[in-house]
Amino acid sequence: MIDFHTHLDLYTNPVEIAAETNRVNIFTLAVTTSPRAWQATSRYFSHLRNIQVALGLHPEIVSEKAVELSIILDNISSTRFIGEIGLDGSPKHRSTYALQIKIFEEILRNCSKIGGRILSIHSRSAASDVVSLISKYSNAGKPVLHWYSGSQTDLNKAIDCDCWFSVGPSMIKSKSGRALVAKMPRNRILPESDGPFATFRNSPIMPWDAISINYELSDIWGTSMLETEQILRSNLRIILE
Ligand code: MN
Questions:
Q1: What does the pLDDT read at residue 195?
Q2: Engineering a disulfide at 126: which of 78, 89, 194, 231 sits with its beta carbon 3.0 to 4.6 angstroms away?
Q3: Residue 7 C-alpha to ligand 1 middle, in angstroms?
Q4: Is residue 194 a contact partner of residue 168, using CB atoms and an 8 Å limit?
C-alpha cells in the first residue's frame, strides 16, 4: 500500500520491481544514496506516477560521495523529497562522522532556506545529534526518521520537534523496536520496507511488504486492521499535503 523508504534502484531487477511497485502501492518513496544515483533513478522512474524519487547522500558513503554535495544543493529547490540523508555513529562509520555532520548540516541549512521539503533521515547510533540538527533547522520541512533505533529520551525530543517516523517489519519484530513504536504518535507513522537491505520471510523485502506492519500496529494500538490502514492512509495524505 505505502512504502515511505525503499532503495528501489538497488534491487537486481529495479525496472520490473518498480513497475510492480507502481501498480500495487498507492505511494512509494524511492530514496537514493547519492545525487548521481538520484539523477539516473529519476530518469528511469519518471513515468511511474505512484513513485517519488528522493535526492540523497547516504551517511555510510560520504567519503566517496562528498564531491557530489553540490549536486544536492543545486537541486533542493526543484525536488520536494530529500533522502536518504543523516548520520551513522556506529563504529564502522565513526571515522567519517565529522564529515557526515558537515554534509548533513549543509543539506539541512539549504532545505531550511526553501522550506517545505520532506526528508527521509537515517539516525543509527546518532539519534541525539540528528535530532539536535533537525531542531536547529526546523524550517526545512517535515523530517521523517527512518528505522529509528535510538533512546526513549531522544525519541521524545524527536516527537517534540515534529518528526515523523517510518517503520518497517524488521524494526517492529524486536521488543525494543515495538516499545519505541508504541511511544510514537500514531498520526506521524508511515510504513517502510528499507529494501532490499531489510529482509522479509528470509528474502529481500519488497516495497509491497511494508504494509505488513499493519498487523503489529493494530496489535500495539488496539485497532482493527481496517482502522490501522485508515490511519496510515490519512497520515500519508497529511504529510503530502
Ligand atoms: Mn535505507
A1: 96
A2: 89
A3: 6
A4: yes
Give residue 122 CA to ligand 1 midpoint distance, Å. Answer: 7
For residue 184, report the distance from its CA to the centre of ligand 1, in Å.
Answer: 20
Predicted TM-score (pTM) above 0.90: yes
What is the whole-number distance in angstroms between the Cα of residue 178 and the centre of ligand 1? 19
- The CA distance from 124 to 121, in Å, is 10
CA of 110 to the centre of ligand 1 (A): 22
Angle at 117 between CA 113 and CA 118, to 5 degrees: 150
- Separation CA 16–CA 118 (nearest Å): 26
Q: Give 171 Cα–ligand 1 centroid separation in angstroms.
A: 13
pLDDT tens readout for residues 103-149: 999 999 999 999 999 999 999 999 999 999 999 999 999 999 999 99
- 96 CA to centre of ligand 1 in angstroms: 18
What are the tens digits of pLDDT across the range 200-211? 989 999 999 999
Grid cell for residue 215: 498487523
Give residue 124 CA to ligand 1 midpoint distance, Å: 11
**Length of the chain in residues, anyone?**
241
